[in-house]
Write a structure and sequence with these properties.
about 120 residues; 4-stranded antiparallel beta sheet; globular
Length: about 120
């Protein structure tokens, strides 16, 4: 899967602009979130009892048109643990106006934030 420049900029600098956001599918809290949790659960990083799903959130960082009705999207997913620090992941997946699961979801666990200011 090829990652396009706007997505790399978004991931590298945390500056994400989605000019056509209202016209692109919003899969927040759906396919990318569920798949991120499944991958984290399968890797032994989390289980259902550890996560407060009501407080967890998914934010679409960018959505880039890659076909007539096909968009490559990046989401930041933050799972709030009942105890301990949040568990975060970035996902990259393809979606259409009809279906959020237009292919596999790539999941990148955010293990540490560097250079942040309090």
């Amino acid at each position: 899967m090829r990652i396009h420049v706007p997505i790399l900029v978004c991931m590298a600098f945390g500056v994400c602009v989605d000019a056509a956001q209202a016209k692109t599918p919003d899969c927040s809290g759906g396919w990318p979130t569920n798949m991120a949790f499944v991958h984290m659960k399968n890797a032994g990083l989390a289980n259902n009892e550890q996560i407060d799903f009501k407080l967890s959130k998914t934010v679409r960082l960018t959505s880039e048109r890659i076909g007539k009705d096909l968009f490559r999207q990046v989401y930041l997913i933050t799972f709030i643990r009942k105890e301990g620090p949040p568990l975060q992941a970035l996902t990259i997946s393809d979606a259409s106006s009809e279906e959020c699961s237009m292919g596999n979801v790539r999941v990148f666990v955010v293990s540490q934030e560097l250079g942040s200011q309090p």
